[in-house]
Amino acid sequence: MKIAVYPGSFDPITNGHIDIILRVSKLVDKLYVGVLNNNAKQLAFDADERVAMIHASLPEELKKNIEVVAFSGLLIDFAKQVQASLIIRGLRAVTDFEYEFQMALTNKSLLPEAETLFIPTNTTFLFLSSSMVKEVARYGGNIDGMVPKEIKDIVLGRLKKD
Ligand code: COA
């Protein structure tokens, strides 16, 4: 069984993340989307809300292969817990690379049996980040195409200023 984890903050999940999830789900037997719970970032949504939004955004037919789970602590401990041998990270631009490379090498030194797999993002989503979505939503901009339609109103409802 080829088991992978795709970790992140997902605050909120974007169409860029969904694109990676759908592509990777075709390559592995089981994909765990790991939602980081001990995040130092200022988050708009708690872990349960982020898990629920991802779950609502996934196509029904893929839900038997994909599990969305919140985790705390080290990523490698989560990977060990779910017996994953692959860590998936999306790369948007060269600017992502240095940080991602450092993280991959750290994880490799902590858990040598796991490999990090970098997936280049779809060019449509090159510019996208969760912070950008929140910024646009906060000021009443149009977030169609940035987040799954299933969570658009939840995101706008939380972020939009009166
Ligand atoms: N499409 C759109 N946006 C994307 C994207 C894609 N394909 N890939 C990444 N992003 C964006 C995210 O939306 C996020 O945007 P934001 O900064 O505006 O919120 C940004 O890129 C960073 O991605 P994120 O998913 O939040 O991951 P991260 O870089 O914060 O890393 C973990 C999160 C979970 C991988 C990492 O912090 C971790 O493993 N933590 C656990 C502790 C640990 O083990 N540490 C040691 C590892 S070195």
The structural class is: alpha/beta
- Uncertain spans: none
Gyration radius over CA: 15 Å
List the secondary-structure elements in sequence, H or E.
Answer: EHEHEHEHEHH
> What about the largest sheet?
5 strands, parallel
The overall pLDDT, averaged over residues, is 94
Kindly describe this structure.
Strand 2, helix 2 (47-57) and strand 3 form a beta-alpha-beta unit. This protein has six helices and five strands; from the N terminus they run E-H-E-H-E-H-E-H-E-H-H. The relative contact order is 0.20. The protein has a five-stranded parallel sheet with strand order 3-2-1-4-5, with helices on both faces. The protein has helices spanning 15-25, 47-57, 75-81, 94-110, 130-138, 152-159, and strands at 3-8, 30-36, 66-71, 86-91, 115-120. It is α/β, with parallel strands linked by helices and 162 residues long. The model has no long low-confidence stretch (mean pLDDT 94). The protein binds coenzyme A.
